UniProtKB/TrEMBL annotation:
Protein name (database record): Uncharacterized protein
UniProt source species: Sebaldella termitidis (strain ATCC 33386 / NCTC 11300)
């Protein structure tokens, strides 16, 4: 089984700061050929590095803006669509995405005020993948499960 993984988690320097959020086990999965990497924000045409962005609202009209107020909603929607296309083309059933990201966050993202306040909501790509039957989990959930498994082995 192949996984769809946020590219930054496997070492690609594509997060908004131009850095990676490497998770060794996920990078190993990719290097073994068991994962396909995507960065929805880059797929949507955003540069690296770029301004931090947060989802402002899902009500009435989806809106994603940067910290300076630039509307980047379209790039997020395009990137989510491209990530879904990659997942479908590769028959992906599970995605491991970056926690709290406005694209990839699963169940929790920042609230749009740039105050680090978290709300219970999915990022744009996570929501689209879920709507299309793909299981979405975060790297934090994976690491928690792996830690539990290793603790049980002791």
């Amino acid at each position: 089984m192949k996984y769809l993984i946020s590219a930054c988690l496997a070492g690609k320097k594509c997060n908004y700061k131009g850095e990676a959020n490497v998770v060794k086990k996920l990078k190993e999965l990719y290097l073994k050929g068991d994962a396909i990497l995507v960065c929805p924000e880059v797929l949507g045409g955003l540069k690296t590095p770029r301004e931090a962005a947060e989802v402002l609202t899902f009500q009435e009209k989806l809106t994603v803006k940067t910290v300076s107020g630039k509307d980047v909603t379209e790039a997020f929607i395009i990137g989510a669509g491209k990530a879904l296309k990659v997942a479908k083309e590769n028959k992906i059933t599970t995605a491991i995405l970056k926690a709290r990201s406005p694209s990839c966050g699963c169940s929790q993202i920042y609230d749009g005020t740039f105050s680090k306040k978290i709300v219970n909501r999915d990022g744009i790509t996570a929501a689209l993948l879920k709507l299309n039957g793909i299981k979405v989990i975060t790297e934090e959930e994976i690491m928690h499960k792996l830690k539990k498994l290793s603790d049980n082995e002791e």
